[in-house]
Amino acid sequence: MDIKIKSLEEYLKSILGDVKIIKIEHLGKEIYTDEDVKGYGYGEPLLIHVKVGSEDKKLVLSTIKPGGFGHEDFSDRAKIILWNHRYYNKLPKHAKSVDVGFFSHDGKLYSVSDAEEFFQLVEYVEGREYFYDLDRMGREEGLSKLDVDRAIALSDYLVEIHSLKNEDYGLYRRRIRELIGHGEQIMGLIDSYKGDEDFLEPNELQRIEEKCLRWRWKLKDKGYRLCRVHGDFHPWNIKFREGVDFSVLDRSRGEWGEAADDVSALTINYLFFSLIYYGEFKKPFRKLWNIFIENYLNKTGDEELLKVIQPFYAWRGLVVASPIWYPNLEYKIRRSLFNFINNILDAEIFDYKNVDTYLR
């Protein structure tokens, strides 16, 4: 990226007042003599010599280089920069942070140092959440052509977005690591349980966590599977309008991930709603389950999905079985879900056509 001297000077004036740039150095290296800083690379600190009024000062402009160690996403790097600005100045003898800001696409600099909390403004999407469809199917014990068409449309959507690949082995390892250890994922969900709930067996959560850790070692080197994902593809984040016209909401946890994440996030709800309404896995939800998964497998050819989806189903199972998110579930439903979690983690290949065997 090129940093324009005029834009940099305007930015400095907005936070310091009367400022004139004297020179800019690539910290510890050569001095820039051109008008603009050409080909600036993120992660390269710049030493900026300025005159503020009549006083000479030196400022360092620094960024975080994209890459491993939890720096892959824009949000990762923003989090570090924001933390630095807030806490540098709270430590005695620490170099003072003057401001925190961002670069725009055209190389301009903007300040956000006064931010107390960040917010997001998103367009409202018309439609009705997909879980209303599942609720109706359960109450009416019926399946319409539109229900089938919508399941295929959702499966096709995942076929489409997952077709974009990104062979970043380090990022894939991170995604699998986060699946096991992140606060929103398996370990975080396990920690949200008290551990003595009546539907749990003694030490069951510990055994589940240990099984999931073994799955990390099975999956973490499959970086060729990294693809574009939604990251939270469940019925509350899908809004349908007429027919099969729909939009999705609240994409989460990064642009790239494992396809099994999205497939499990939606299909676990076919199982979940069936257990709620019937206490077992039966039509119409079993039929939608088979239609969705078979359509996905036929169009992607990704048979390996059945060898990697197990810990993702365990994570989603921990979500839907949780008394925090679903406080009114019957004992039998929660126990069936935990049977599913335990049994699927023991399966080398997921037999999606015989889900009943995992519920016992």
Quick take:
The protein contains 13 helices and 11 strands. The protein has helices at residues 5-16, 74-88, 131-140, 145-162, 169-181, 186-192, 204-219, 259-278, 285-300, 305-308, 310-320, 331-345, 356-359, and strands spanning 19-26, 31-32, 46-52, 55-61, 101-103, 109-111, 128-129, 227-228, 238-240, 246-248, 256-257.
Please explain how this structure is put together.
Helix 5 (169-181) packs antiparallel against helix 7 (204-219), helix 8 crosses helix 11 (310-320) and helix 11 (310-320) runs antiparallel to helix 12. The chain folds into 2 domains: 5-111; 128-359, Aminoglycoside phosphotransferase (APH), C-terminal lobe (Aminoglycoside 3'-phosphotransferase, Chain: A, domain 2, Alpha-Beta Complex), CATH 3.90.1200. It is built from 13 helices and 11 strands. Strand 5 and strand 6 form a beta hairpin. By secondary structure, the protein is of the alpha+beta class. The strands form 4 sheets. Strands 2-1-3-4 form a 4-stranded antiparallel beta sheet.
Core attributes:
360 residues; alpha+beta; Aminoglycoside 3'-phosphotransferase, Chain: A, domain 2; 2 domains; 4-stranded antiparallel sheet; 3-stranded antiparallel sheet; 45% helix
Going by helix content, strand content and strand pairing, the class is alpha+beta
The beta-strand count equals 11
Proportion of strand residues = 5-15%
Total of domains: 2
Separate helix tally:
13
Distance between the termini: 58 Å
Sum up the overall morphology in one term: elongated
CATH architectural group of the largest domain? Alpha-Beta Complex
Helices and strands, in order, run as HEEEEHEEEHHHHHEEEEHHHHHH
CATH homologous superfamily identity of the largest domain: Aminoglycoside phosphotransferase (APH), C-terminal lobe
Determine Rg (CA atoms, Å): 26 Å
Overall average pLDDT? 92
The residue ranges in which pLDDT falls below 50 over 5 or more consecutive positions are none
> What is the CATH C-level name of the largest domain?
Alpha Beta
What CATH calls the topology of the largest domain is Aminoglycoside 3'-phosphotransferase, Chain: A, domain 2
Helix content: 40-55%
Strand order of the largest sheet: 2-1-3-4
Major β-sheet profile: 4 strands, antiparallel
